[in-house]
Fold:
Amino acid sequence: MRSMTGYGDAVSETPEFVLIIDIKAVNNRFLKINSKICDEVSFLQVDLEEAVRKQLARGSIFFTIRFQPAKPSDLYQVNEDVVKKYADTVERLGKELNTSEEIRLQDILALPGAIKADDTVIPEREKVLPVALDTMERALGKLVEMREREGKNLHDELENRCGKLDELMLEVKKNAPQALEDHFRKIEERTGVLLGEQKAGLSEGDILREAALLAERSDITEEIARMDSHLEQFLGALTVDEPVGRKLEFICQEMFRESNTMGSKAPGNEVSKFVVEIKAEVDRVKEQVLNVE
Structure:
């Protein structure tokens, strides 16, 4: 089991360039990938995102790529012809508009085309891509390792929570039959009292049948059976060697639904008390499951 949070980084150095990748992940119901890649190696984006998809199933993923040529000072050059053209145009416009405003070189250098990248300094895709993929694999390896460490803690926590739920369900099973019987007797007594003298024409059997029908609505046998089944499926999912977060979320929803139904039907204060604890425990499990890949 893995959590959805983690971090990894890796560096590759070659005679021609240095490539640095940082990748981090946080919770998300689906797989969402965002990246920040310097313009010089923007062609790497598709391949690196595909590498991420092969390793990760869920989470919001963000990675950055920094590229440093072996001679960074040679990467950018001033396009002198363009700069001169800008300067001449500004000077001419200044005379025409009769203004003596000073021309600042730093303003001209910020204009489009004033600075150009020397493509010969950037290695070709065939040279950069294999190095980038290897770097990403090592960064992903660190991220996955962190996810697995946190996943082990999540696994233990969820297993303990399921154990607690199982204990609470045993209490419900132990108390439910007697609570249902007591509930039936109370309904029978109340029915007789409420009908009073008006029960003329109704036999004792009729009253018992009506009481039994009302009591049956408080029978939680089916809900108990389904809750046991969900718990078994949940524990089984904890043992598989694949992403199970979405499956666990679904099972949690079903457990919460059953616990709500038990809460509305449960006969007697004793059973209701345990059902309230079950609902609270299921809610705690659900919170933890939101961290599982």
User: Anything to note?
Assistant: The chain has a mean pLDDT of 84. The first strand starts at residue 6 and ends at 13. The chain has three domains: 6-71+124-148, 76-117, 150-289. The chain has eight helices and six strands.
